[in-house]
Amino acid sequence: MSIPEIVYCILALAFCAFFVLLKWNEVRYSRKGMPPGTMGWPIFGETAGFLKQGPDFMKCKRARYGNLLKSHALGSPIVISMDPELNRYILKNEAKGLVPGYPVSMRNILGKSNIAEVHGALHKRIRGSILSFIGPAAIRGHLLPEVDKFMTSFLDNWDDKTIDIQQKTKQMAFFVSMKLIVENEPSPFNEAFKATFDNIVSGTFSLPINIPGTNYFRGLQTRKKVVATLKEVIAKRRSSLSTHADILDQLMRNEDSRYKLNDEEIIDQIITFLYSGYETVSTTTMMAVKYLHDNPRVLEEVRKEHFAIQQSKRPEDVISWDDYKLMVYTRGVIFETLRLANIVNGVLRKATTDVELNGFTIPQGWRVYVYTRETNCDPFLYRDPCKFNPSRWLELECVPERNWAYL
Length: 407
Hints:
Blueprint (H helix, E strand, L loop, with lengths): L2 H26 L18 H6 L2 H11 L2 E6 L2 E6 L2 H9 L5 E3 L3 H7 L9 H15 L1 H19 L10 H17 L5 H18 L10 H24 L8 H6 L10 H14 L2 H16 L1 H15 L10 H5 L2 H14 L4 E6 L3 E3 L2 E3 L4 E5 L1 H4 L14 H4 L13
Parallel strand pairs: 2-7
Antiparallel strand pairs: 1-2, 3-4, 4-7, 5-6
Helix pairs in contact: 5-10, 7-8, 8-13, 9-10, 13-16, 14-16
Keywords: Iron, Membrane, Metal-binding, Transmembrane, Transmembrane helix
Organism: Abrus precatorius (Indian licorice)
């Protein structure tokens, strides 16, 4: 063969290999009755667009395939739902073939026993073990006053200073969680723990490829360090007779056989508590500050509401549950911030059997991504959806069954 012929053969083989790779996922996951969509490359799927393009990726997919489509991201085939009614059905019918099904990377880094991953009898046992300290009674009697005292101390030296709100809200979210979980650990411990924990967040939403240099690898290595640190704290607690008014102590000393957790399960819940209240709470808090800054009239309404509550209290009094119930406008600000700026774009479920949704078949083992970001800004559901308007929520305060049709 001549050199040109060899070159042509190589190009032809390369083209064929490229075509096979491009269609591999399409063929592998092909099944009658599936929603429309594309599956991307083998292993990687469409993860790059899913993570980097975010809302733009979803808008393009929705324009091309409609409100229910298939894709492949974060190591799993998924069906993405952007239909408000279907999303509501999925979330209300979790037991009917759909259970929590977060990415493999999240499950392995947060722990296989974390409350967001398990279901059935194990979920019931873990939920029972933590309900006593995160339920309504605990929030009213312990968590709310403790958070108030922490925030008073945290804000104490902000006067006449330029503050990096993004940095401060991250510190606030992490340290208030640490105080509630392990109350008496020294500040250097908390600072070092936070620096270690930062890699957890980036690792949970990544391709589960465990090689050095990847976010997933760093996340797994960070988990090992966090687990080792928490084991030391637990061992120190077990060797001491002293008690602590924190979540770790309650988990360790729960003697109810129905809800008692072993050390591995306790550690998984603590990592999950810290993770769930870190990036989400800090970013949402930062955005609330931004919206208040950008909307002086809203800020003035919030100030009026809080100053009215403050006038009925002594300077040393902490916020009570009754005070919280009076914060009607503040709740509107919170709801509106969550609508516009919630960084959790949706929730994932996993099909435990073949499930039918809107006439399409979702195969067993596939993830279903209930995507809510687009519906939060749907002009059919919300009047003037891009406007920050906490008052839209006040109209619903006395309505038993909320009318989501046109807020």
